[in-house]
Amino acid sequence: MELKEGELFNRYDDPLLSEYYSEIVACLPEYPELRSIVADEIKENHLPGERILDVGSGRGDSAKPILETVPDVSIDLLDVSPQLLGEADEFLSEHKGRYQIILEDALTYLNRCSPYRIMYSEFTVHNFFQEDKEKLFQAVYDKLEMGGSFILLDKIQQDDSNIVKELYDAQVERYREALDPRVADAIIAHEIDDMKEEVRMKESETVKMFKKIGFTDVTVIRRIKRDVAIRATK
């Protein structure tokens, strides 16, 4: 799918990484616990029968624990990858009828959709350049109902550079031990790019960006190693 002017540029577009997505996720043992945190947050704050938006859903890894934990919500799966969305029906086969697939760029969709009361995004936003991150957060804010919340779960660095390096080195070792060398090289190159100034996310700066956009309550729900869950309320 070609990007048009004004659409987001996702750096995570290596076909090799998409092909071995499951194997890469298996190298991130914190993911299930982190995703359960988002599911519990939505369970606590949703309305019965509510439809919520998953920004950058992929095949449904982020949606699955929510569908399992919160039986009275449905989810709009928004992603620009036809390959990953093409796997959603099989991956979420137990939950047919409770999700809708939307193959579209996030900014394009948010500019035309009706408002939501709850939106969330897991491990997607760190793939965008800084200016695109702010564009996305602004678009989310604009399409949230007043009092609604956006939950962000992502790779967001701590301010202590020594801790950042220690956690990075440990993750690289996991990749080297578990993955085919070609795949390990590709995902490590992506990790290196994530550390660059033009893309890297830091907790304090992310919270500051949310507040700048206009979110009135920004709360760090929990951090596990390199990853943070943040709730931003309009």
Task: Explain what the structure shows.
There is one protein chain. This protein has about 230 residues and is α/β, with parallel strands linked by helices. It is about 45% helix and about 20% strand. The protein has eleven helices and seven strands. It has a seven-stranded mixed beta sheet, sandwiched between helices. The longest helix has 18 residues, at about 160-180. Mean pLDDT is about 90; it is low at about 1-10.
Q: Note the total helix count.
A: 11
**Low-confidence stretches at least 5 residues in length (pLDDT < 50)?**
1-9
Largest sheet: 7 strands, mixed
Shape: globular
Order of helices and strands: HHHEHEHHEHEHEHHHEE
What's the end-to-end separation, in Å? Answer: 32 Å
Radius of gyration: 17 Å
Beta content: 15-25%
Total DSSP E strands? 7
Lateral strand order in the biggest sheet: 3-2-1-4-5-7-6
Structural class assignment: alpha/beta
Helix content: 40-55%
Question: Overall mean pLDDT score?
Answer: 91
Features:
7 strands; seven-stranded mixed β-sheet; alpha/beta; 21% strand; 234 residues
Give a short synopsis of this structure.
With about 230 residues, the protein is an alpha/beta fold. It has eleven helices and seven strands.
Itemize the secondary structure elements and their pairings.
Layout: H1 15-19, H2 21-26, H3 31-45, E1 51-55, H4 63-69, E2 74-79, H5 82-85, H6 88-91, E3 99-103, H7 106-112, E4 116-122, H8 130-142, E5 144-155, H9 161-178, H10 181-194, H11 203-213, E6 217-224, E7 227-233
Parallel strand pairs: 1-2, 1-4, 2-3, 4-5
Antiparallel strand pairs: 5-7, 6-7
Helix pairs in contact: 3-4, 7-8, 9-10
